[in-house]
User: What shape does this take?
Amino acid sequence: MTAQQPSAPPRARSGPSGPGIVHVTERHHEQFTVVGNHLAQHPELSLMAIGLAIHIQSLPKGTPVGIKALAARFPEGEIRIAAALRELEAHGYLARIKERLPSGRVVTRTISYNRPRLVAPSAAAPTADTSAAPGPLVAPVALPVALDPRAAPPSHRPAVDLLSGLRAYDSRLLLTERDVYRLAPAVAAWLERGVPATVVQRTLMTGLPQEPIRHPARFLAHRLVALLPPPLPAAPHPRSTAPHGSLRPDPFQTCDGCDRAFRAPGPGRCRDCRSCGAAA
Assistant: This one.
């Protein structure tokens, strides 16, 4: 380590006069973080994501950087912080890996990169133990065979529209056309069992994880299979119950034998005429 030099007085960078920024630069000898311009001047990241990335890079190893921990530190709230973390993960500055401990508890390991890495999170973790990789958190669900959009039955059109519109509510649920037509029969099964489309949509989107959804098609397929409700029971007979809960009486009929009125489900003979006919 080199000896610390006495700090020089602040020096303003020379430049053309005008309304632009003027930098007053002082050299840091401790408590500083080196940040590349590729992050500080990133053309696609939001200002919230850039600031959060710089904050995370300045933290010592082992500091909690979960959404709740960051929301307790900053006033932006969990929704904006979660969106910024997804931006950083999509551009390679952050990776979050699910790991299962020997006790069975599932934890999230966060890896911060001072240079963007366009690699899979599993390959980016240098200390990950591939010999004892944890099993999947959700049992894999086999997707049905993809349908040809031109050969899809008209009954699947509401299901196709429902699946295609999920991305308007959460961009993580963006599906390819192939996945939409694969999942359409499963959604159609819900609709055929009397579940309104708005209820199906709410069931698929309620309680989404805060982490990125790497396989939205399999995630939705699991929910469609695991949460499928039973069919509606058969409708009761029209005459089974009255509005007040008692049995409804049969309507009046005219006897074909004696023209007397009697109650019966349909036309025919009254009980006396049927008894006389049986005796004869």
